[in-house]
Design brief:
alpha+beta; five-stranded mixed sheet; about 160 residues; about 20% helix; about 45% strand; four-stranded antiparallel sheet; Pyruvoyl-Dependent Histidine Decarboxylase, Chain B
Length: about 160
Amino acid sequence: MFGPLPKRYFLTSGAGDATTGLNAFDAALLDAKVGDTNLIKLSSILPPGAEQIAPFELPKGSLVPLAYGELVAYEPGAVISASVAVGIPVDPTLAGLIMECSRFGAAGPCEEACREMVREGMEVIRGVRIKEIKSISATHAVEQVGAVFAAVVLCP
């Protein structure tokens, strides 16, 4: 038996800069309001019928299931982006699909690539009609060492 399926989710993103890659990633997590939690990285399925909610403060130290995209870069002046997109099926009894993307460059092309992966994954690969696609991105111009993070957080 596995735990109960998450019934809610929210999108969040953040960016940060520091002197090391791990510290930059930590700063991006704090910016996204998930930095004081223990992240459990998931593959990319949204449970059937899950509804989007507004982000809220997570209990410090909690175990947080999420699907995320991230990128750390060490080149000052580089622009980096991370995105996630969620495909919501027309049929609420079917699972949705989450895709992640990260790359050098502006957020717009990264987010569009992520949304296109959702379209292909649902319509082409799974044969599932899409009701809507929701997405979020983070972008950052690196100062020392930079990081970007975008996630879909699953909640009870």
